[in-house]
Structure formats: C-alpha cells, structure tokens
Amino acid sequence: MHIVDGEHGHAHGCDHEHAHDHAHEHCGSCGGCEEKKPGSEQEALLSYMLDHNKHHAAELADVAKKFRETGKEDVAVQIEKAIENFDKGNLYLSLALSLVK
C-alpha cells in the first residue's frame, strides 16, 4: 500500500496503481500534440478520470464494508449513498466518452 497525495488535494492509502502524473500537463512544451487528432488529449483525460473514479468507488465499497463489520451501519449506508452518486456520475462520464470515440 502506498499513500497518494496528488493534485486532487487529498491523500489516501491505496492498494492499486495510480497514474497521477497526467500526460496533458506537459503537452504545451513537448511539440508532439500537434500530430494528435483534435480532442484526443481531452478524451484521454476523460478516460483516465472515469477509470480513476471507478477505483475510488471500489475503495469506498471496502470502507463501507469495514464500517458495517464494526457495527457502524449508519456510516456504511451513507458511504453507499455516495457510491451511488459516483456510479451515476461515472455513467455520464462513460456516455460522454462514447460520444467522443
């Protein structure tokens, strides 16, 4: 497990890999972006964010499970409500991504 403290303004422990160094941050100086199709940078970022959000939802599901196991049902329920919103947001991101492809 490692601690992630990226540009997202939060720190958390993770058991999975993160690619917090987005390629889009350096494209202004690399000169290679002109060869890419218009919107490809945004498409890549959207794809990354969708995957990233799915990982966070899975992490939150584990957190909810652990709270439930310790008898904190009320906490687990609130976390699961948050996960529902992650899932809803991810649906919209997925639809947006399919429109770009």
| Strand coverage percent | 5-15%
Q: Give the terminus-to-terminus CA distance.
A: 34 Å
Helix/strand-derived category reads mainly alpha
Residue ranges: pLDDT <50 for 5 or more in a row? Answer: 1-29
Q: Walk across the major sheet and give the strand order.
A: 1-2
Number of helices: 3
Structural account:
This protein has 101 residues and is mainly alpha-helical. It has a domain at 39-101. The chain has 3 helices and 2 strands. It has helices at residues 27-30, 40-69, 73-100, and strands at residues 2-5, 11-14. The protein has a two-stranded antiparallel sheet with strand order 1-2. The N and C termini lie far apart (34 Å). The model is unreliable at 1-29 (pLDDT under 50).
Main attributes of the structure:
101 residues, disordered N terminus, 3 helices, elongated, mainly alpha, single chain, two-stranded antiparallel sheet
Topology overview:
Layout: E1 2-5, E2 11-14, H1 27-30, H2 40-69, H3 73-100
Antiparallel strand pairs: 1-2
Helix pairs in contact: 2-3
Write a short abstract of this structure.
This protein is mainly alpha-helical. It is built from 3 helices and 2 strands. The chain has a domain at 39-101.
